[in-house]
Amino acid sequence: MESQKRRAGRPPKPVLGRGLIAQQALQLVVADGLERFTMSHLAKKLGVAVSALYNHVANKADVVLLIQDELVSQVSVDGMLRLVAHQTTLEDALRDWARSYRAVFAEYPSLIPLIAVTPISDAPQTLRMYNVVTQAVASAGIPDADVMRVIIAFESFLFGSAMDVNAPPTIFDTRDSAMESAWLQRVVNTSMGGAAAESDDADSGADEPAAKNPYAEEPFQFGLEALIQATLMLVASRN
Amino acid sequence: MESQKRRAGRPPKPVLGRGLIAQQALQLVVADGLERFTMSHLAKKLGVAVSALYNHVANKADVVLLIQDELVSQVSVDGMLRLVAHQTTLEDALRDWARSYRAVFAEYPSLIPLIAVTPISDAPQTLRMYNVVTQAVASAGIPDADVMRVIIAFESFLFGSAMDVNAPPTIFDTRDSAMESAWLQRVVNTSMGGAAAESDDADSGADEPAAKNPYAEEPFQFGLEALIQATLMLVASRN
Known about the structure:
The structure is a homodimer of 239-residue chains.
Chain A: H1 2-5, H2 18-32, H3 39-46, H4 50-53, H5 60-72, H6 78-84, H7 90-106, H8 112-115, H9 124-139, H10 144-165, H11 182-198, H12 217-238
Helix pairs in contact in A: 2-3, 2-5, 5-9, 6-7, 6-9, 7-10, 7-12, 9-10, 10-12
């Protein structure tokens, strides 16, 4: 981004604008948390006066919108666009979108509770994503009245799955073989040992980072396919 | 809780212990955020010296464990216990547990990213919940190797659904009828208008608070039933 702005005759410093503000605000919120985020911290990080910042953003809530839009703009809707063009199936489009969505938010788990409750009306990239996804899903045969419940159910699962990517592999370890946790230990030893052995084989998609938690992939696949199958049933029930 | 501790011969002030520390720490973290939570703030809130606090908890991480355990102890496993006793079905036990789980965490959305990555080994109530749930699900016919993936997939969905309960009903409103959001507006008007009209009829379970977001119930039901059906398929495929 910076190199694009360094044109002849321009100063080497990137020009202050909503794009640059979004990127720097994102870094600041990830580092310090939203509670400690202030407009004056942001101005300092950008090397500008607070008054210059207010030429581009109205207030802290406006910056949260910019951060949301910056994150959502990273989610790929390529599969959804192919679905609109009849070049892929509903299930593959949902799978691609869901994997990209989870991968983006897995990088920013602390922001998920914020993004999950931020209205989208003033976030243009976010509006675009929802518009493409709703068009694709509706065009594929999901009744209009069901489209939002499908998308929101996927998102709920994707937000939670993005957090699970950041869980430590030891999250379900138990300290000893006490009776009180005998069943838990039995299934954890069976399934999560299996997941560890298989993790090298997992084909987790090109735009996905290496999973931090090797046990996050199998539950994600199970839940994702459950949601996809239920969604396909909505199409089938209409036909 | 306080009244139980006010027995004859005891001082009126509740006795300092891990239960009381957990409750007060939970209130403090919800009010101020985890970043600003300190042991000295907690001691002040409890009206004790910091040194007295350290007689019961080792450090901030230990307090986080207490908070986790306090929250998880509120999740009902009654349905799972009935399943173990062959008094209910797998699908009803999953439904009851999931509804209670979502309702508890919907009260504390800011803590979800923390709880989602906190190991459970030193949290006795949390260990108990997982042990009951794994016993019930495995006893109902889910293969040992699949139990954890089912539970984790449910939890990912439940964490996200708990956050959606706190989303404003206007989250998908669009400001105008611009072409860029035409599809989104169409499905939002169709489905979320419908959800609003039906929200009075929704039977959302006895232990669930009134939904803050009237549009959270339908996506939750869709995703929950999708996961339940996929789970029942695991039993069917083994038989």
